[in-house]
């Protein structure tokens, strides 16, 4: 094995141990949690190695970086998640490779995604990004819609042609009442998810938890964790 392959395999094994331990502690099946590796800022060669090591879900947060990488990896059996703040002028490009957009946070974006999904003849799975640092239905500092805006946005996604409502995503907030309280933040997300599932039973995905807090997310009930640094290493500052 090359050095990089060995490094990624070792890191993946450690992350896998952490997820398994967290599942065991929470009385959950390991199969109920999907690992998404966030490959932003890392090259397509790393994505290829991850695929060879059995990873099936990868995530990116900037279209400029993601589009060429996804094209270089189009022969691989990967599901691509888009997790970054998304401008409507990037929607056509993102729709070309993303299977799941986790950062849906406004109606204007729903309209654009629907239009491009229909044009491409694809069905896009969409998660509503919940901002736990925002009041009511305002937008959050790092993207996302406040808890009060989730229901209306979910209805808009569910009604939009070409889109499917998959569930919810959050990034643990740096500010506000949930700052440095990851477990409480993820518990709150699960509460919002229960409310959502009352009207949209199929919207079961709950994407929460990153390298530093995946245990809290698994304990709270997340179905998907998004791990970058712990698998690929510390990123250069950008990204
Ligand atoms: C970068 C990123 C992650 C991964 O963060 P790490 O701390 O590197 O694990 C997860 N989710 C989103 C939305 C990200 O942008």
Automatic annotation (TrEMBL):
The modification N6-(pyridoxal phosphate)lysine is found at residue 40. Gene3D superfamilies: Alanine racemase (3.20.20.10). The keyword Repeat does not apply. It comes from the Bacteria. Keywords: Pyridoxal phosphate. NCBIfam families: YggS family pyridoxal phosphate-dependent enzyme (TIGR00044). Belongs to the pyridoxal phosphate-binding protein YggS/PROSC family. Pyridoxal 5'-phosphate (PLP)-binding protein, which is involved in PLP homeostasis. This is Pyridoxal phosphate homeostasis protein. The lineage of its organism: Bacteria, Bacillati, Actinomycetota, Actinomycetes, Kitasatosporales.
